Amino acid sequence: MRHGGAEGASVTQADEAAVAAEEKQVAPRGPQDLRPETWRYIVARTTRGFGFDDLPDAAASLTYYGVLSIFPALIAIVAGFVTFGDGRSAIETLLKGFDNALPGMSTKSLMDALDELAKVSGIWPFILGTLLTVWTVSRYVGGFSRAMNRIYGIDEGRGFMKLKPQQLLVSVAYIIIVGLMGSLIVLSGSVADAVGEALGIGEPWLTLWSIVKWPLLVLLAVLLIGLLYYATPNRHITQFRWLSFGAVIALTTLIISSAVFFIYVLNFSNYDKIYRSLAGALIALIWLWIANLALLFGAEFDAQVERGRQLQAGIAAEDSLQLEVRDDRLALKRAKLKADLRSGGVEIRHNAAPRAPR
């Protein structure tokens, strides 16, 4: 079923078939078929829509949900190190990898926090930390879903019993991909040398690894962005692509903005002097917000590319995108509830006592 606008008003099956036939006949098959004026319109709508959809605020809420998942994730990681390996050595290795990735940033406060967490060991803290991580990450996924629905101008129509299992599955995939990305970042410099020595691997393989890991990191980032763009919104996507225009823009923006931010932090800022032990946490918060801004900007661009495609096909999408949704039952229930509440308010107003003349 196709919907347009925030209220999700549906069209008839006949209208939907007519629209589909029209799209099939004249719709651009790809970005290469979009005219120059369409691209100019897409860029203008993207830059303005980023503010109209309140995406900086949405990125801030996503940062909050992301921070919520850090503590249970640390519990699971440290408990796993202590339970299944040499906890102290593994923690030091983890921090060495962090130092290699971000030289010049102090990890003393993080080391102290991990030492305290290492006192909580055993299989149950590991299991509890893992479950809490999945649940808190699902809150992030839910926030991303709401932001995506706002970008596409559609209502959430999936009920809790359908939506929450989907979000939990996406969360598990998200954790796996982010964990692999973190492992690639940590396995560099002295950490890679130590692992190579333990495995009996030396040059030139370590040099090859230092080169190959970056394309792998980009590939995992593409998978993560594609997962969030495809699985979170209530939009039904018939032709899925891991690498959309928006994903490319999001990844490029993320890489450039991250590089600029960390160059500024390491060379020009005074976070360590001003905030001392809180500097690392503050830097992480700002970077998470920047990363979420990049992700939402790419999603906004994808939505406007779809709008441009529909407009060039002659479909009235200047106000609302005409999209097929995964489910609309919850949206219809909410619309009925709003209508009932409005009727109740109108009745109260009509039954109001007449005002006395002055």
UniProtKB/TrEMBL annotation:
The chain crosses the membrane at residues 62-84, 123-142, 168-191, 211-230, 242-266, 278-299. Keywords: Cell membrane, Membrane, Transmembrane, Transmembrane helix. InterPro entries: Virul_fac_BrkB. Coiled coil: none annotated. Residues 1-33 are annotated as: Disordered. This is YihY/virulence factor BrkB family protein. It holds the Pfam family Virul_fac_BrkB. Signal peptide: none annotated. It comes from Orlajensenia flava. NCBIfam families: yihY_not_rbn (TIGR00765).
